Amino acid sequence: MKNIHFIGDVHGKFERYFGVIQSLPEKSISIQLGDFGLGFHPEIDQEYLSVNIGKNHKWIYGNHDNPRFRTNENCLGDYGIFQDIFYVSGAWSVDQWHRTIGRSWWPEEEQSVSSLESMLKFYSLVKPDFVCSHDSPFAVKKILIGEEPKDRTSNYLQMMLDIHRPKTWIFGHFHITFNQTIKKTNFIGLGELEVLSI
């Protein structure tokens, strides 16, 4: 695996994100861990989309990303492998009841059950050493927020973990720095625009 830089949630703070990727060594590869923030401010979104950040800087989507921007050439999509990293997009918004559908919340924030089932089958075949996702597995989420989540995404991420424990699992979503090894898997959570290089 090449040197990869992981970047925490951006939340539409594109100027700061540009500063982060410009500060990386030349020809660096990065994966932004979701909640990039496209879809909240159309005028800023268009300005961002007019900037070519290069094919080496990718992002997965989180719960705060308008689905129509998933066709952006830098978005990796629902799940797959990029540079030997198994990635999974999507998450559930705990505050969706206070948001406006189509403006600040989208029903497609989580992958469908059929997509997650396909992802699980692929993961069971690949058994990767490195995983990145926007959300975290159920067991880790419980440590972080101290309550039992019922959402689809963290439950499927937990199923992944039950099938195969990677060496390292990196995630965003919670806006905190977290680093803990649990049963031989090192879980690393990144705060907003925090950078981790591996």
Helix and strand arrangement:
Elements: E1 4-7, H1 14-23, E2 29-32, H2 42-49, E3 57-59, E4 79-82, E5 85-88, H3 113-126, E6 130-133, H4 138-145, H5 152-163, E7 168-171, E8 178-182, E9 185-189, E10 195-197
Parallel strand pairs: 1-2, 2-3, 5-6, 6-7, 7-9
Antiparallel strand pairs: 1-10, 4-5, 8-9
Helix pairs in contact: 3-5
CATH arch. level architecture? 4-Layer Sandwich
Number of structurally distinct domains: 1
Count of helical stretches: 5
Proportion of strand residues: 15-25%
- The CATH topology label is Purple Acid Phosphatase, chain A, domain 2
CATH superfamily: Metallo-dependent phosphatases
Structural class: alpha/beta
Mass-distribution shape: globular
Q: Largest sheet at a glance?
A: 6 strands, mixed
Tell me the number of strands: 10
Order of helices and strands: EHEHEEEHEHHEEEE
- How are the strands of the biggest sheet laid out side by side? 4-5-6-7-9-8
Mean residue pLDDT: 91
Q: What do you see in this structure?
A:
- This protein has 5 helices and 10 strands.
- The chain has one domain: Metallo-dependent phosphatases (Purple Acid Phosphatase, chain A, domain 2).
- With 198 residues, it is α/β, with parallel strands linked by helices.
- The mean pLDDT is 91.
- The longest helix is centred in the middle third of the chain and has 14 residues, at 113-126.
- Helix content is 26%, strand content 20%.
- The chain starts with a strand and ends with a strand.
